[in-house]
Amino acid sequence: MRDTSAAGLKATIREYFDGCNEADADKIMACFTEDAVHYFPAGAPQGTFSGAAGIAAGWVAAVGKFGSCWTIDRMLVDADSREAVIEWTHFKPKLNVYLRGDEWYVFARNGLIAEIRAYYACPASTDVIRSHELGDFAYGKLGYPMKPPAIDR
What stretches of 45-152 adopt beta strand conformation (E)? Predict the structure, then answer.
């Protein structure tokens, strides 16, 4: 059981990022439930990372392929709901590029990360993709709106 206070949840996220930057699969996996899911925007080349081992393998591979390293730029935690949101930067030195984005974290009762939803800063394109959302995430089933609201204008 991990510390589920705000400070404890922050520490778990920081440990996860340290594990990513160190390309330490065991350290990354220690932060997640076994069946954790890391969602990305639909069409992201890496797809969804499933399971603690899958999440670790994905980030260790990114370090090898792109020289990836990450910073946590902002973090807000709600210990009562066991949720957090962070703003991050993902540097890819081998490509000379970086991404900025946010992630929504959901923690299990034991304080391990159960779900991450990643959102990237990206240019809007209506030519190719008509919606910008996470791949594999069950928006409609979870009660998210699927149509614009009726607004009297």
Answer: 49-50, 69-78, 83-92, 97-107, 113-120
Q: Which of 70, 65, 130 is nearest to 98 (CA)?
A: 70
Reported pTM:
0.86
Report the candidate in 76, 83, 66, 85 with the shortest Cα–Cα distance to residue 20. Answer: 66
pLDDT digits (tens, 9 = 90+) for 50-83: 999 999 999 999 999 999 999 999 999 999 999 9
> 26: domain range?
6-120
Q: What is the pLDDT of residue 124?
A: 55
**What ranges in 30-131 are assigned the alpha helix state H?**
51-66
Query: For residue 96, what is the domain's CATH number?
Result: 3.10.450.50
| Domain count for the chain | 1
19 domain residue, yes or no = yes
